[in-house]
Design brief:
Distance between the termini: 7 Å
Radius of gyration: 24 Å
Strand order of the largest sheet: 1-6
Strand content: 5-15%
Order of helices and strands: EHHEEEEHHE
Shape: elongated
Structural class: alpha+beta
Largest sheet: 2 strands, antiparallel
Oligomer: single chain
Number of helices: 4
Length: about 150
């Protein structure tokens, strides 16, 4: 049976602990970067479908603060507030998305979701890599050597 000798484990242990502290702060940066892209794509989709009564619906799309749920942290991006007649902007967005008997559906949210998915993942991955590479994030070596032993 072979015997393994590990060298550099202390360095790796400290590096992983430091990264653990970094990761918790990095998640917030990742969420904000993704939320910005989502907001821009939702606004662009509304403009593309020419949904612009007063422009309030487009302006009302905002990102919430970071919240904690059962599965982790998240941000909600949605239309907020009310128009000048007291109609919730979220309701107007929903009606435009699915349509009514008199108003054809203009699936702006579906279009935005399809367009933003890959962009958000790429940007969040990019932010993660940037944050992990700061302050010696790529330091440390982990060497594993197999040492033959006699039985």
């Amino acid at each position: 049976m072979g015997k393994f000798t590990f060298t550099g484990l202390d360095s790796i242990q400290y590096q992983l602990q430091a990264r653990g502290a970094k990761v918790s702060g990095t998640v917030n940066h990742m969420l904000h970067a993704g939320a910005k892209i989502a907001r821009e794509e939702m606004q662009a989709a509304l403009k593309e479908y020419k949904i612009r009564d007063t422009g309030n619906l487009i302006k009302s799309i905002k990102a919430s603060k970071i919240k904690k749920g059962d599965s982790g942290k998240y941000i909600t991006i949605r239309p907020t507030g009310y128009d000048r007649h007291g109609v919730p902007n979220a309701l107007k967005g929903y009606v435009y998305e699915i349509g009514t008997s008199r108003l054809p559906a203009r699936p702006w949210k579906t279009l935005a979701d399809v367009r933003m998915r890959d962009k958000i993942q790429a940007r969040m991955r990019e932010v993660f890599q940037e944050e992990m590479s700061k302050n010696g994030g790529n330091e440390g070596k982990w060497n594993v050597e197999e040492v033959e032993t006699e039985e």
